[in-house]
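Data card: per-record layout.
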Amino acid sequence: MESRKEILLGKLRNGAGFQGREALVLTFLLAVPAILAQLSMCLMSYIDAGMVGRLGSGPAAAIGLVSSTGWIFGSFCYANSSGYTVQIAHRCGARDFKGARKIFRQGLFTVLGGSLILALAGIAISGALPRWLGGSPEILSDATAYFRIYALFLPIFQVAVYTEAALIASGNVKVPSIVSVAMCVLDVAFNYLFIFVLHKGAAGAALGTGIAELCAGAFGLIYILTRSKELRGTAEEGPMEEKEALNRSAQATTQWVNKQAFGIAWPLWIQNLVTRGAYIAATVIIAPLGTIAIAANSFAIIAEGFCYLPGYGMQDAATTLVGQSLGAGRRDLARKFSRITILSGASMMAALAVLMWAFAPQLMDMLSNDPEVIRLGAQCLRIEAFAEFFFGISIVAYGCCIGAGDTLVPSLINLLSMWVIRIGLALLLIPGMGLLGYWVAMATELTAKGIIFAVRIRRGRWMNTRLTEADISK
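The structure for this 474-residue chain is written out next.
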């Protein structure tokens, strides 16, 4: 018996009429499991940070120092995945499940190869990276060990990211959410083992997370290949002449898919380098403020993740719904889903921001036992609370654009807002305000970015995607 979600997705793909209430129900059927997965990941970050925080501000500062660089490497994995999973969503919307399966298999080998290159690069720079970032001598060893292990597990992380994104693109949010929750539970268990039982310190945190990612990636891949009705592999049989014709067609399709994947991914690569580079620049700016400021900044970013939950859950739903709507040739429905997801995600983030403002000291107390870190981090959180509604708009609107294959302009928006507004203001404010100056600059930048994304979504040009219905039929 088909579930309510499958029935509604079938209506979307078949061109049937869609009432406003049905669109809202489908949105939350996809978003709620993703939000719960985000909640589990947030709790994982809290528990991980709390474990490291109990070791003292030194190990916490070591991880915080290299975290921004880790985000750059990890974001390349997400960008590479998007190049193929956006196309999977469009194919599923057009009911071309055979094409979706081909794209999945092709993308898997491509993104895995890219992640191996990333891993080698990360391992190569791990020794010098903490010094480049201005870390103090007492945290250099821990920072190097943490980043080297993180880089070693990048191919594993890539498989986990790609399989999760592919399932979400196909309309299956439940299984990736369950896998995410299981990964978080395993992460906590392995981190406890390596940090407190085996006394591996900061390196133990990286080992625990890496092994949890290994379990998640392996399960996701096995599930897709054996259970996913949209993406599992099937053997093709036929006369030799037919097979040769199919091979020639497959080669042309492979070239076209790779071209489209590159067109989607390259703006995300540039955005990743430039905007994540801005995070590194911020780390360099903050590092001279001392270990307390580094730890407070790192823990406050983790604590703020409490507000991200509905935003990123709705982003997953928006990418899937917009992608499949456009794949089905239904621009009106894509626009409707963009409005529903953006308003819902931003409103829920604003509600959580009120709680974050009220309980900021308690949130920080869960992550650190240093009174100065708790006090400074709580002040940062209360500044950021005022920007969460607009941040929610930008998060979900970005997911809508990705679902349409529109990556260049959103990447430029993120690039300019980060470097011109956030870093520019930070350079002006930090000398007089310290760490709080950086968080004022960040809140200002997120508010401005949310307004810009809202204007872009309203104008509708983001739906002028390169992946047209004619392209999808190839």
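Known properties of this structure: The radius of gyration is 22 Å. The CA atoms of residues 69 and 280 lie 6 Å apart.

See the next section for split statistics.
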